[in-house]
User: Fold these one by one.
Assistant:
Number 1:
Amino acid sequence: MALVLDHVSKTVAGEAHLVDINLTLEPGTMNVLLGHTGAGKTSLLRLIAGLDRPTQGTLRQRDVDITRLPSRARSVALVYQQFINYPSLTVHDNIASPLRLRGVRDAGARVLELARLLRIEDLLARLPGQLSGGQQQRVAIARALAKGAEVVLLDEPLVNLDYKLREDLRDELRALFGVERPDGRPATVIYATTDPAEALALGGSTILVHHGRILQHAPALEVYHRPASVVAARVFSDPPMNIVDGVVRDGVIELVDEIRIPVGAQRTRSDGGAYRSGGAAVGAHLAGLADGPYRFGIRASDCRLHQAPEGHVAVRARVELSEISGSETFVYLRGAGELARFIVQEDGVFHHQLDDELTFYIDPDRLLAFHVGGDQALVASYHPGH
């Protein structure tokens, strides 16, 4: 019953859009395609929908080869980021159109059920042009569900909505697509986005896509806490993860700009107090690293400008840019030796001037370690419960 992509590649005018894609997506699962703009997400959705054909490889659904099956013959529904509805049909008739094509009896009852599910039951008599953007996208999603497809594809369906509408619809989507189809089986959902926060909110499996390749495919929290490589870590971080070169010597991480982070043992602060009163050692997950060079990563949200807990490592830096986004402040910093660059995300609104000197704090318990060179694969990751 799974949807299987076997060594699928797509080349257009000599340019590789997808490269050797291997995926198995089980029925009833939520799968989030996460990647930057141009990563290959839409190309992948179009192949699954039957709008394009792969240059190489095969697609199978229910153990049937569907590689050359036209879109209309596939059990697939696609929702675009644009609000695509039939402008001359009412909301009711937009939702009912796929039901009528399938010859569903009592289509009106199913339309009302879907409209209630998407909270648009009071809009059934209106035309799409009389609706807000969020309402129009709800209609498009309802029509996709009405199709009763085994696979539902969503290509950044919330990107054109304002922040509040995106948040409201995103919170509903996971429960929404867990609803069974008319035949009693839940659909397989594939949801494309550029937003890591959306991938975490939706849960399920995350498929990281970069330059037409799949970097990692695993449960969302596993990909977040244990990214397979430096590139995977950056794709699943917004703003991008801080990546700094360093070496391990005798249990101490030495980063550029003379930043020293002792790990793996109880350490004392300059005032003589212990970093921690009992419990795990600071950065214990890095204690097994052999001496040598590594690349170290830490997310902007795991650095602090104010009220850093004990065990955090102080770093002197200068402000290159400060941005306020809603209730958060993003501060772009360069280390005292001007070799390291950091982004710090702080809850609250703070004002910093260009070239201000300040101290921020790194949490050693949230450091990731990656190999130097090659595929820059993950070497050590913290336990998410810590």
Note: The longest strand covers residues 313-325.
Number 2:
Amino acid sequence: MTEITYEGLASPRPLAPDAVRLDRVTKTYGKGASAVTALQDVTITLPKGSFTAVMGPSGSGKSTFMHCAAGLDRPTSGIVHLGDIDLTRLREPKLTELRRERVGFVFQAFNLLPSLTAVQNVTLPLRLAGARTDTAWLRAVLDQVGLTDRAGHRPAQLSGGQQQRVAIARALVTRPEVVFADEPTGALDSRSGREVLGLLRQVVHELGQTVVMVTHDPVAASYADRVLFLADGRLVGELTAPTAGRVAERMTHLEG
């Protein structure tokens, strides 16, 4: 088998020093007496090449944080930057194009098309965008996620962990500036979950990818470089070099 090296295969896009930056971001749903503020005055910087976990009790604003940071939802006030682009200034067609080309998504549900092979699922975003597939990069991504010998298999022929690897490869194939992962191990057993978390850690370390992961699991969060804690829509703390025990202790105080 031909040896694949990753030198020269990283994203060619010039990146700002920060992958994501939120400046005083607030998101309110509804109006008047029925208004609910899901995110309130959040300011945070996520460096490129970092792995950040976002945690908090139910209703703390974790999903809203991810949706605003990824350009899936517009904040009510404040500014969101993806690299050097102010997402809050973009019209919807440009925002859709930016998400497709510069952001990768991994969800708890693998969202694979059952009639397509693994490699066809991986390259689907490129085909939908009418973009050419960089064969060398595709091979590198498949190798990185350990799918080279499963590329021709359909989802039903793959384990849950392997299906999530396909989803991660699909998120990487467009060379995004940031990968957002929403409870990526939620549908997996503990062993498959550890393998997927190790893979996310690996793509940060080896490919310089930026990963932002929403999770409720202290063990999952311990794979990150930094954990951000939200409560009642506010950023209330963070941990660097987290351990599962320290994360669990902090969560206990937030939920108490």
Note: Residues 51 and 200 are 8 Å apart (CA to CA).
Number 3:
Amino acid sequence: MLHPLFFSFVKDSRKINTIVSTNGHFLSVGNSEKIVKSGLSKLIISLDGLDHNTYSAYRMNGCVNTVLDGLKNVTTAKEKYSSLLKIEVQFIVNRLNEDQIPQVRKLASKFKASLRLKSMQINEREDIASWIPIKERFSRYKLKNGGYVIKNSLPDRCARLWLSPVITWDGKVLPCCFDKNAEHVMGDLNQESFREIWNGTKYRVFRKSILSGRYMIEICRNCTSGLSGVNC
């Protein structure tokens, strides 16, 4: 939402099912009203703790009160304009905040938002023990042979590649939200149309590689797609 053309992007995509995921720090009253009137299908607001300590431990330099104010602003605007916008509160469960799940359920209900509990992706193996939730169902990792490994059997399939592309702020098209560092750019909307990228060689080759050897791709080895029994 820092991009000066953000709302024009949302307007241009209003005819398709479009989702915006935000850390909630730019949901001012004015921005919230623009969002609910934009035709956006769904807004995901990340709220990973209900007090300063638990929130800022994961969302460094963030302010939980700003996010809560933003959630309130969007909800108020939605009611004001009778918007069909779906609001989802996303809560990444870790050892510091797992005891707050009952509270965040009540909070989401209060704001008439859905709640999605997500398992935490941990890239630095030495940090897993300090972040992994005590309740096993909220962790995507398990202890094996003295170390932590993902519970996922990594089946050679992934619906995300056919359903959930990600477009970055500068127009790059990525296969999914797990490609956080844009390591697998499928194309650039500044140079090609989305349809050309979607049906292009890079996308077809990447999809084929998932269907034949998903375990060989780094971003796919830490993914919850196909993982059962765990909040994704």
Note: DSSP finds nine helices and nine strands in the chain.
Number 4:
Amino acid sequence: MSEAGPDTLRRAAKIHPIAALQTEYSLWSRDPEDGLLDVTRELGIAFVAYSPLGRGFLAGQIRKFEDLKQDDYRRQSPRFQGENFQRNLELVARVEELATEKNSTASQLALARLIAQGDDIIPIPGTKRRKYLEENAGALNISLSATDLRRIEEVAPHGAVAGLRYPEAMMKLVNG
């Protein structure tokens, strides 16, 4: 299943076994922590975390709105627009500082944090280049202590990202 909320997931699991739920999850999108992960764990459903790098923002490659090509769908995303963009860029800078301390990239730190949330969480970062695939795989070599996880939470707490995941009309279609 994809983008199902807790109630929908429970109803579906009563009808047919569900192997996995795919939903956006990252430091950038923490909604699954509001009960959805609890339900997947209760029902024994794997959680496939798409956009674990915040639609590329946590990769640190996007520094200004103009870095997005004219036809890039992210130009329509509230998180990439106006004041939200600047606030989110500041969040990325804080994550990058922590990553530097761990001798990693922000991408690797963000992925390592997801992996540390449990064996049932499977991040699926998208990439078009081999070097980023190899960089992402480096997240598996990062060990995060309870102190590291606390510090990540301090610099990127739930709700810190500015703007909705999608334009408002589309948000009505997710996690239902």
Note: The first helix runs from residue 6 to 15.
